[in-house]
Amino acid sequence: MKTRAVVTLMRVIVGILFMAHGISKFQMGLGNTAGWFGSIGIPEFVAYIVAFLELIGGIALVVGFATRYFSAAFVIMLIGAIFTAKLDGGLLGTDGMAGYELDLALIALAAYFTIADERGVGVDQLITTRK
């Protein structure tokens, strides 16, 4: 039972972090976010996908819905972020730019939620229990 509580807490915290990043992109304006993506060589339409994935996927993790699928998408997205935007800055970042240490930690957690049988208390558990 203790494991379930800890896993639920981890999933909710990770969901809140992704949600916050998604909200931030909407607050900056998706056009501005897309422009920044374009300025670093990423197709601008990817900004819209990332913003919606972070927001909707973050909410899904908080409530524990489709955890495995959203977590797998986050792993892919974060690996892409490291290799397209953060690798040059190094692990801890340089010149005021963020490094990829947070991305690595989130990849580890999202990978866990993708492959683990225990994903905590949430909608996924309710659906599985009813089957």
TrEMBL record:
Segments traversing the membrane: 6-24, 45-63, 69-87
InterPro entries: DoxX, DoxX-like_oxidoreductase
Keywords per UniProt: Cell membrane, Membrane, Oxidoreductase, Transmembrane, Transmembrane helix
Tree of life domain: Bacteria
Subcellular compartments: Cell membrane
Entry's Gene Ontology molecular function annotations: oxidoreductase activity
Name of the top EC class for this enzyme: oxidoreductase
Annotated EC: 1.-.-.-
Membrane topology summary: Multi-pass membrane protein
Signal peptide extent: none
Protein family according to the UniProt entry: Belongs to the DoxX family.
PANTHER family (alphabetical): INNER MEMBRANE PROTEIN YPHA-RELATED, OXIDOREDUCTASE CATD-RELATED
Name assigned to this protein: Oxidoreductase CatD
Organism encoding this protein: Paenibacillus plantiphilus
Encoding gene (name): catD_1
